[in-house]
TrEMBL record:
ATP binds at K19, R20, K21, C22, G23, K24, D25, R144. Substrate binds at N173. It comes from Anopheles dirus. It is found in: Cytoplasm, Cytosol. This is Phosphomevalonate kinase. GO terms for biological process: cholesterol biosynthetic process; isopentenyl diphosphate biosynthetic process, mevalonate pathway.
Length: 192
C-alpha cells in the first residue's frame, strides 16, 4: 500500500490486543454478528502467516486458523519464522492481511506487536484507529485452555504490547456472562 495516500476503506479500524485465551477472537466474532457482515469484517494478521505455513509444510490451513491443539503444535515455529520475516519488513503480514479489507469497519482481532499498531497508524492514520486491550487473569485463561509455554508466552508475540498503551479502551474479560456489556462498550467506541 502507498503510505502517502490512505485507502478510503475502512472508515474505522478496531485493533484488538491481548494475551492468548483472553477472548479476542470470541469478542471479534460476536461483534461482527452485532454489526453485520455487510458493514464489518474481521481481518487476522496471523492468517497470511498460517497460510504460508500450511502451504510450506503441507498442513491443514483450517485447523491452523482454528483454536485447537493442532495450531498449538506449530505455534512456536510459526512465531520464529514470522519474526524473521518481520525483521526484513515489519509490516509484511499486516499488509497482506489488509488486502482483503472491503468494509466500513475492520476488526483486526490479533494485534500483538507495537509494529502492528505502527503499521495501521502509518497506513490509515490515527483518526481511524480504535485500540482495545482485552485482559483476563491467568486463572480465567487457564480455565479456557491456556497453559504457560516457555518460548511462546514470554516472547515478543505475547509480551510486546504489555506496555503498549494508552488504549482507547481497556476491557477485563473475566466472566462468560459479561460479553454483552463488553460488546456494547466496544460498539460505542467505534460508532461514536
Amino acid at each position: 500500500m502507498d503510505s502517502t495516500k490512505a485507502p478510503e476503506l475502512p472508515r474505522v479500524l478496531l485493533l484488538l490486543s491481548g494475551k492468548r485465551k483472553c477472548g479476542k477472537d470470541f469478542l471479534a466474532d460476536a461483534l461482527l454478528k452485532r454489526l453485520g457482515p455487510n458493514r464489518a469484517q474481521i481481518v487476522r494478521i496471523s492468517e497470511p502467516i498460517k497460510r504460508h505455513w500450511a502451504d510450506e509444510m503441507g498442513l491443514d490451513l483450517g485447523a491452523l486458523l482454528g483454536d485447537g491443539a493442532y495450531k498449538e503444535r506449530y505455534r512456536k515455529q510459526m512465531i520464529e519464522w514470522s519474526d524473521a520475516r518481520r525483521r526484513e519488513d515489519y509490516g509484511v503480514f499486516c499488509r497482506a492481511a489488509c488486502r482483503t479489507i472491503d468494509r466500513e469497519i475492520c476488526i483486526v482481532s490479533d494485534v500483538r506487536r507495537k509494529t502492528d499498531v505502527r503499521f495501521f497508524r502509518e497506513t490509515y492514520g490515527p483518526a481511524r484507529l480504535r485500540t482495545v486491550r482485552i485482559e483476563a487473569s491467568e486463572s480465567v485463561r487457564g480455565a479456557r485452555g491456556w497453559t504457560f509455554q516457555a518460548g511462546i508466552d514470554d516472547v515478543q508475540s505475547e509480551c510486546d504490547l504489555d506496555d503498549g498503551g494508552p488504549w482507547d479502551l481497556l476491557l477485563k474479560n473475566e466472566h462468560a456472562d459479561g460479553a454483552d456489556e463488553l460488546l456494547a462498550r466496544i460498539e460505542k467506541l467505534i460508532l461514536d
